[in-house]
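Predict the assembly for these two chains.
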Amino acid sequence: MHAEKSLAHDMTTYQKWIAFYTMLRKDVVRMFRIWGQTFLPSIITSSLYFLIFGAVLGSRIGEMQGVDYMSFVVPGLVMLAIVTNSYTNSSFTFFQSKFFARSIEEQLVSPMPPWIMIAGFISGGVVRGILVGALVLAISLFFTNLHIAIASAGVILLFAVLTAFVFSLAGLVNGIYAKSIDGINIVPTFVLTPLIYLGGVFYSISSLPQAAQYVTHVNPLFYLINGFRYGFLGITDVPLATSLAVLFGLIALLIAVNWYLIRTGLGLKQ
Amino acid sequence: MSFPALVIKDLKKTYGSGTVALKGVSLEVPEGDFFALLGPNGAGKTTIIGIVTGLVTKTGGTVSVFGYDIDKDTEKAKTQIGLVGQEINFNPFEKVLDIVVNQGGYYGIPRSEAIPRAKQLLADLGLGDKMTGQAMQLSGGMKRRLMIARALIHKPRFLILDEPTAGVDVELRRGMWSYLRKLTGEGVTILLTTHYLEEAEQLANHVAILNYGEIIRNGTMKDILAMHTDEGQAAEGYRGGRLEEVFLQLINESDK
């Protein structure tokens, strides 16, 4: 008998884990297969930043909040790599499976519940964000005298993972809504990049005029970069608890949006 | 208790553009049957399949698969179904074996179980020597067979084939017919849409003919073919098979 009547049940926890693992494995295999597109660009870009800000400009700028400028910039550049890679991975992977080959149908016809699909799509983004962030951090050690204490390593890891999580979720929303390749590029170019650069990657907001400081406080990236910088250098413009609260708030909001979109099939089903 | 493989009641679909695709379709596919859903382009066949498999949202009506409502018992219903879609819908950069094994993963089948099963299916479908290559290297007919292997990896009780032999040469098509007959012999219920009416005539036990989103005829193949008469044949040139003649007759009547 070919047909299996025993399969007439909801997916078990183990089967859901297998479904999630399959999606994660598939994406990780893909990102390593095309490593020149997934890992290399951030490594080259960050190396250029370190070279320019460290060797050329850093010595002229001097110190920022009591630490040498190069060390001050490292957390922001690592965060930049995490944010852009996790976002791009989720948005592009989803968009590609939706439009280029319609392979999203492989998942849509399967019994996996919407939250497994969300977890599957964002997990690749989290992995890529963390891997590229770690590579950029490793490169920074060639240019700076950073010493990371064991105690602060936990804060760094926490912020790295949560940030990758947030931007993978955000990228997925973008991927679901995007109707063309332009729709994938518009948000990173015109929204994400300005938010990152104006969020304090290269400066402390204490060096800004009062009005600009207020504006910076509505930028979510500001909190993430500061929490991350606290882990590295023990300095921050806002309390750590505030940064964590912003991160968890964003995660809750983005999970709800993604769940709604996939559950209802908006942007996915006809 | 035994349930029909598919029960559709008063199924309606209006797309966002305002196009009314289904106007209240009711249909029943008995368990173990080979059922052909026929109709001209745009009749609503693919919309029905899309709704049953979760790719299209319905506007109204109910659908159940082996007694499981697709809205209330979605996971149970979906585990019963295998879909071979009309369009090629796999990532062409992936390896042939990976496409089938990953599909098993989405149904919760671990790789240790899925890999030997996938190899067997691919070998059965004549793709044994293509497993490690990229899917983009396959010919059109091979891609269709890969989609069949992928649809069968979780051993579905109900296989839905949306024009599976489109663009496939005669020899390969005959081979696919044999394979599908073998599946029904093993207890798999099959719903087939096709524009090759001789294919439906050869394979199906039941037929439903759809036009403009409505079922215009539904019955056993024997009953449908019995509607065929030879009257007026000499007045026209090419003559198709018996099902083709009945199909054209019914569609023409429906269009009036």
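DSSP finds eleven helices and two strands in chain A. Residues 16-264 of chain A form one domain.
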